[in-house]
Design a protein that fits this description.
14% strand; six-stranded mixed sheet; 2 domains; Rossmann fold; 11 helices; 338 residues
């Protein structure tokens, strides 16, 4: 199988039957390579491809980097827009706030374009960095065993609510390394812009990146380990998907979701906790998934017959008549179901 066909298959598997996709670009080599590969795939399959770049307003160079990516998109014939984070910036938790703002802007743009899938350019090195940081946490991690080694998933929900409802973010380059992506750009004579903050060792990920750059063999071993752990999570997430399909009802009013407690209680406890953690991350707009121990405790309460409300991060659960739970961002909106 040629590299082009293999990559096309990855795009196809993640896009499903969607006729339109949104590609998130920054101007760096990873996202520009994603843009080129996705455009080639879209042209072969007749998909409509849209492009967006977010300027967070945090670095003076960012605007030029974003505009470069949009220029590449224009030369490829792909509709592209610059999205601006113009609200006031927080004095703490800036990176998490920027991430949430980015996903909110991308979700709004996806809805405007009629796309339900957003492609991002995470690759094998990102996966290795994530695993290295998890290993470095060691005993300080609140997630025991292999659960604490959660890899970057190939696809998942867009972690903002309600803008992200019904949308997913997909990462079709997770099995490619950065050198392959840069080689694709060089072969096509396409330039990119490097983000200097990626080398700023103030950030944990930048320190992990520097270590892996100095020890490439370690990066390859971590990538293989990440793939093995991903297989474990694939099985767990399949259970979570089945649980979500049987236990969740998204037709509720007032911005919440109903959880069938009987169906939930019959599921594996790991799947219960992972489903609630995902809901807390998306509905509750958490900066990161909740601690595993807290998710397990919340799942145990949700699976019980307790009539007491509970919280998981900013996710709020309240018992309803008829054996259901109402899950909503905290504080709950007025006028919710009884």
């Amino acid at each position: 199988m040629s590299a082009e066909i293999a990559r096309s298959a990855a795009f196809e598997a993640l896009c499903g039957k969607d006729e339109a996709v949104l590609v998130a670009v920054s101007g760096g080599p990873d996202s520009v390579a994603l843009l080129l590969l996705a455009k080639e795939w879209a042209d072969r399959t007749g998909r409509r491809l849209f492009v967006a770049s977010v300027d967070h307003g945090l670095r003076p160079e960012a605007r030029a980097e974003a505009l470069h990516a949009l220029d590449v998109a224009a030369r490829l014939g792909a509709p592209a827009r610059l999205l601006l984070w113009e609200s006031e910036k927080p004095t703490s938790g800036l990176m998490a706030a920027a991430r949430a703002a980015r996903y909110r802007l991308l979700a709004e743009e996806a809805l405007r374009c009629g796309a339900t899938t957003i492609f991002t350019a995470h690759h094998a090195q990102d996966q290795a960095e994530t695993l290295l940081m998890a290993l470095a946490r060691g005993e300080k991690s609140a997630e025991p065993g292999w659960i604490g080694l959660a890899p970057i998933p190939w696809a998942g929900p867009v972690p903002v609510w309600p803008e992200g409802a019904g949308l997913r973010v997909a990462r079709p380059l997770l099995d490619l390394d950065k050198a392959q992506l840069q080689a694709a750009l060089i072969a096509r004579r396409v330039s990119w812009r490097d983000d200097p903050s990626n080398l700023n060792r103030v950030f944990t990920r930048a320190r992990a990146r520097a270590l892996l750059a100095a020890e490439p063999a370690l990066g390859r071993r971590l990538a293989r380990l990440a793939a093995a752990v991903a297989e474990l999570f694939a099985g767990l997430d399949a259970d979570v998907g089945r649980l979500a399909a049987t236990a969740l009802d998204w037709r509720m009013a007032a911005g919440g979701v109903a959880l069938d407690r009987a169906a939930f209680a019959a599921a594996d406890p790991l799947a219960q906790a992972r489903l609630l953690a995902a809901l807390a991350y998306v509905l509750g707009e958490a900066q990161s998934p909740p601690r595993w121990g807290k998710a397990r405790a919340a799942a145990a309460k949700a699976a019980s017959t307790s009539q007491t409300a509970f919280t998981l991060g900013d996710l709020w659960g309240r018992p309803l008549r008829g054996g259901a739970l109402w899950l909503t961002p905290r504080p709950p909106p007025a006028g919710g179901p009884a």
